[in-house]
Amino acid sequence: MNEVLEIAKYILPSVVTAGVIYFVFDSFYKKEERKRWVELKTETAKISLPVRMQAYERLVLLMERISPGTLVMRVNTSGLTGRQMHAELLKALRSEFDHNITQQVYISRTAWEAVKNAKEETVKLVNYAASTMDDNASGTDLAKTILEMTMKLENLPTQVACDVLRDEAARLY
User: Fold this and answer.
1) DSSP-assigned letter for residue 5
2) Distance between CA atoms of 37 and 59, rounded to whole angstroms?
């Protein structure tokens, strides 16, 4: 029995010391791992933040370009019939949207849904305005109708999308 106590006197302090060392090193390694993870996130943010901000800028520009008033002014060419103007407006709208479709990678789903909704609602507005025109209407008549309809709207879908994009971009800082 004395021999067991004698062995325990030497082993017990070693086991306690090993346990303390294990917990100290484990705590140290966990802190270092967290520190490296934070550094990695910081480095990633330095690279991705400018790209994300550029995506928000491009999508706000898209919303401005497909806003009905801006779109009509940019596409309006004298001598177009209402049908031709309608086709040109839809072509410009889709072209602008398709040119910026990859920007969805850098923004939230909510923001992208707002952008898509703005595009779809603008298409609906253009289509509705074209459907109210008679076959002999000129492109200028269609443009006037679209602008009148736009003035009656409380909030343009493109403006709503711009607000969502600006709010998200502001949260990045």
Assistant:
1) H
2) 31
CB-CB contact of 65 with 116 (8 Å) = no
The one-letter amino acid code at 173 reads Y
Output 139-142 pairs: Cβ under 8 A, ≥24 positions apart: 139/76, 139/77, 139/78, 139/79, 139/80, 139/81, 139/82, 139/84, 139/85, 139/88, 140/76, 140/78, 141/82, 142/82, 142/85, 142/86, 142/89
What span, in angstroms and rounded, lies between the C-alpha atoms of 99 and 107?
16
* Mean pLDDT for back-to-back runs of 10 residues, the chain (173 residues): 80 88 92 92 83 95 95 88 94 96 95 97 96 91 94 93 95 82
DSSP label of 79 = T
Opening angle at CA 97, ends 96 and 100, nearest 5: 90
